[in-house]
Amino acid sequence: MKKIPILIDLYVSLAKIGSVTFGGGMAMMPILQRELIEKKKWMTEDELLDYYAIGQSTPGIIAVNVATFVGFKQAGIAGGIVATLGMITPSVVIARFISSVDHLPLAQKALRGINVSVAALLTSVVFQFSKKTVKSILGFLCLAVSFAAIWFFKVPSYWMIIAGAATGVIVSVFSRKTKKSEDK
User: Global pTM?
Assistant: First the structure.
């Protein structure tokens, strides 16, 4: 019974986010930051970045994966389920509505306008993400190489995620060995 208020709060909060999230997982980052970090204080920015990174590299929709992690952190398995349902409910309703009006010229123009707004949101999120995660020359180099590989050479993004993880592990191991040899 104690969990019911948090479950309701999870559902409503994530349904609100899901109802205004057009453009996928990256487009929802500013909304997640405002609602879940600033207003609810359910997580830190680092946790959100971690959830996003894990959600990006696991099967499924990023927004749903992040919602599940948030819900699980707040209320266990029931929280994960409720948060996931909260995130997907608006999409189901909106998809049914859009499919019934997408042939109308006014609806097509509205969707094109939404796409432009989503592009602006995504650009903003990319810069915010970069400022928070690129903290060294090596980080910037990884960003530049990943961007070039994906944009110019059409390397699938999952390969860049794997390469980034491998680079992080190698740098960590190398840094520890260097520190140990300096301490001796």
Answer: 0.67
Dist. CA 108–CA 138, nearest whole Å: 44
Cα–Cα distance measured from residue 19 to residue 23, given in angstroms and rounded to the nearest whole number: 12
Phi, psi of 152 (to 5 degrees): -90, -35
End-to-end CA distance of the chain: 57
pLDDT tens, the chain, 184 aa long: 678 999 999 999 999 998 887 666 677 788 888 899 999 999 998 898 888 888 877 888 888 999 999 999 999 999 999 999 999 999 888 888 888 888 889 988 988 888 888 788 778 777 877 888 888 898 899 999 999 999 999 999 889 989 988 998 999 898 887 777 777 6
Is 102 within 8 Å of 111 (Cβ atoms)?
yes
Query: Could you give phi then psi for residue 155, rounded to 5 degrees?
Result: -70, 130
Question: Which residues are within 8 A (CB) of 149 and not within 5 positions of it... i.e. 6 or more apart?
Answer: 155, 159, 160
Q: Which of 142, 178, 135, 179 is nearest to 161 (CA)?
A: 142
Token digits of residue 11: 């559902």
CA atoms within 13 A on the CB side of 126: 9
